[in-house]
């Protein structure tokens, strides 16, 4: 059965998988929790809320026990990185992580993917490309992704990082150290949108605390 996602639509629902944007999650998930549901949220709405566990099942499943109705999952680029980092972190400790990402058009949603395909068709037909979405819909200026690279994902923060980069830094700290601002692990990220429809890649440089540690 398909019905409109209103507060009352969650009556009798046990598990909610939410992925309709942060604003929708913020509005509806507290209503679903009130009605007894456990919500797993794919958006960034609750990831930094100290009462909400940020969980990657292969990395920190023990955090699930602390949930109060909402469980967040991290950004896609953070997920694939922390799965690889976890065994190294456990055995050697981590001092520093420097990550560069190569992120596909699909990460910006269906409308960005449609625009990317249209730009590609236009470019190959010798027509001018029109961009209205990327790097981020809320910006005034937009650039084509087709046959291009965009070193900006989401809006810029005051410190010069983009919000996507900010998320990778703080989500990694929250998942590995349970503290989004942990200072004993240094993380920096550079996130780039690349002209492919699907598949994110990343290059990760790390420094460990103790190279000689044994299990
Ligand atoms: N954790 C991750 O790795 C990750 C990765 C990608 C995206 N995300 C997050 O997931 C969310 C969706 O991203 P996306 O790429 O899938 O975007 P998208 O392609 O734009 O899809 C959004 C979907 O949400 C639906 N929707 C919008 N408002 C709704 C409402 N009020 N009630 C029910 N459904 C509604 C839309 O339905 P219509 O098409 O009918 O409008 C559409 O199917 C975003 O918050 C994004 O940041 C997370």
UniProtKB/TrEMBL annotation:
<dbReference type="Pfam" id="PF02774">
    <property type="entry name" value="Semialdhyde_dhC"/>
</dbReference>
<comment type="similarity">
    <text>Belongs to the aspartate-semialdehyde dehydrogenase family.</text>
</comment>
<dbReference type="InterPro" id="IPR012280">
    <property type="entry name" value="Semialdhyde_DH_dimer_dom"/>
</dbReference>
<dbReference type="Pfam" id="PF01118">
    <property type="entry name" value="Semialdhyde_dh"/>
</dbReference>
<protein>
    <submittedName>
        <fullName>Aspartate-semialdehyde dehydrogenase (Asd)</fullName>
        <ecNumber>1.2.1.11</ecNumber>
    </submittedName>
</protein>
<keyword id="KW-0560">Oxidoreductase</keyword>
<dbReference type="InterPro" id="IPR036291">
    <property type="entry name" value="NAD(P)-bd_dom_sf"/>
</dbReference>
<dbReference type="InterPro" id="IPR000534">
    <property type="entry name" value="Semialdehyde_DH_NAD-bd"/>
</dbReference>
<dbReference type="GO" id="GO:0004073">
    <property type="term" value="F:aspartate-semialdehyde dehydrogenase activity"/>
</dbReference>
<feature type="domain" description="Semialdehyde dehydrogenase NAD-binding">
    <location>
        <begin position="2"/>
        <end position="67"/>
    </location>
</feature>
């Amino acid at each position: 059965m398909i019905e409109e996602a209103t507060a009352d639509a969650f009556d009798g629902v046990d598990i909610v998988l939410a992925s309709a944007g942060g604003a929708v999650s913020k509005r509806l998930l507290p209503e679903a929790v009130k009605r007894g549901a456990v919500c797993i949220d794919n958006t960034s709405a609750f990831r930094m809320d100290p009462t909400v566990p940020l969980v990657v099942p292969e990395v920190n499943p023990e955090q699930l026990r602390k949930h109060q109705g909402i469980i967040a999952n991290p950004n896609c680029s953070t997920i694939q990185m922390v799965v690889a980092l976890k065994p190294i972190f456990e055995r050697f400790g981590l001092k520093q992580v420097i990550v560069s990402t190569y992120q596909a058009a699909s990460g910006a949603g269906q409308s960005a993917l449609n625009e990317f395909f249209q730009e590609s068709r236009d470019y190959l037909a010798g027509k001018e490309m029109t961009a209205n979405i990327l790097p981020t819909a809320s910006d005034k200026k937009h650039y084509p992704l087709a046959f291009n690279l965009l070193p900006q994902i989401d809006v810029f923060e005051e410190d010069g990082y983009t919000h996507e980069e900010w998320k990778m830094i703080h989500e990694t700290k929250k998942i590995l150290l349970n503290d989004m601002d942990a200072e004993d692990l240094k993380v920096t990220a550079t996130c780039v949108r690349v002209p492919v429809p699907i598949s994110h890649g990343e290059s990760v440089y790390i420094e460990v605390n103790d190279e000689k540690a044994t299990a």
